[in-house]
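Narrative of accomplishments. A recurring question from our advisory board has been how the design workflow behaves on a single, concrete structure rather than in aggregate. To address it, we present the structure tokens for one chain from the evaluation set, followed by the sequence designed for it. No filtering or post-editing was applied between the two.
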């Protein structure tokens, strides 16, 4: 069958009874829905360049104030879901009963609601401080908030935090499933835990690959002063920045394709 789109992946996950009973699968469904939001906003951003002979974000203030914050909101929800999925997979595969009992669908729903509320509140200042500036177009006009965006949001919230947290708990979950054979666990459940852990780990590896270069580029940009007289240095830095940003954006698009491929390999044959 041909690959279609992220929505198809969401439908497949929802239809599977085993996934419905898995908390990690719930987080992955939330992630896929958030990815769809990022892709829709990104597609609208590119479509406007085709439909209009001008950039609407440089003319319409409401467009300027909503486009980037909404896309950032979906992106943060998606990254948070990746972290939660990795943590939950570590808890659900843990041999300690008190940790395993923390992996519940009710808790997952509450954490997801809390994270959405937190990120909505976090993005309200972006809607306030985004404005149409001369020469720069739609940008943050407040210097203090721009520093927060450059020094904390981009390198930490959008890079170091999701990479570090998801990688750490995914490796712990992988270590747990390697010892499942020693525990008195039904074969079906053991097989399912291994498959889902492999999915989460694959997802995190791809997240690291897409965001690591972006984080390194941001740290370099913030710690090194560019010589404005060195044209070669400027060109190289701009090329690396563009490539890193493009790779970061691919994180929201290609991982849906990767997730569906992984889903097909680990689940369709098992269910059938």
């Amino acid at each position: 069958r041909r690959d279609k789109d992220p929505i198809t992946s969401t439908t497949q996950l929802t239809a599977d009874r085993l996934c419905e009973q898995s908390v990690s699968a719930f987080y992955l469904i939330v992630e896929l829905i958030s990815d769809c939001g990022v892709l829709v906003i990104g597609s609208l951003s590119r479509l406007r360049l085709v439909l209009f002979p001008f950039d609407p974000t440089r003319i319409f203030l409401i467009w300027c104030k909503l486009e980037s914050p909404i896309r950032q909101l979906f992106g943060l929800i998606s990254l948070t879901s990746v972290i939660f999925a990795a943590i939950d997979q570590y808890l659900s595969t843990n041999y300690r009963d008190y940790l395993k009992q923390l992996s519940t669908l009710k808790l997952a729903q509450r954490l997801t609601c809390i994270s959405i509320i937190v990120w909505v509140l976090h993005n309200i200042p972006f809607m306030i401080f985004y404005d149409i500036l001369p020469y720069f177009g739609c940008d943050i006009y407040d210097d203090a908030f721009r520093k927060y965006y450059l020094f904390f949001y981009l390198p930490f919230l959008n890079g170091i935090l999701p990479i570090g947290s998801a990688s750490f708990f995914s490796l712990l979950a992988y270590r747990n499933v390697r010892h499942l054979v020693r525990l008195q666990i039904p074969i079906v459940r053991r097989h399912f835990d291994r498959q889902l852990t492999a999915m989460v780990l694959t997802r995190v590896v791809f997240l690291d690959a897409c965001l690591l270069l972006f984080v390194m580029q941001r740290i370099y940009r913030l710690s090194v002063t560019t010589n404005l007289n060195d044209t070669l240095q400027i060109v190289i830095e701009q090329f690396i920045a563009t490539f890193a940003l493009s790779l970061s954006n691919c994180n929201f698009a290609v991982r849906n394709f990767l997730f569906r491929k992984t889903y097909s390999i680990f689940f369709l044959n098992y269910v059938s």
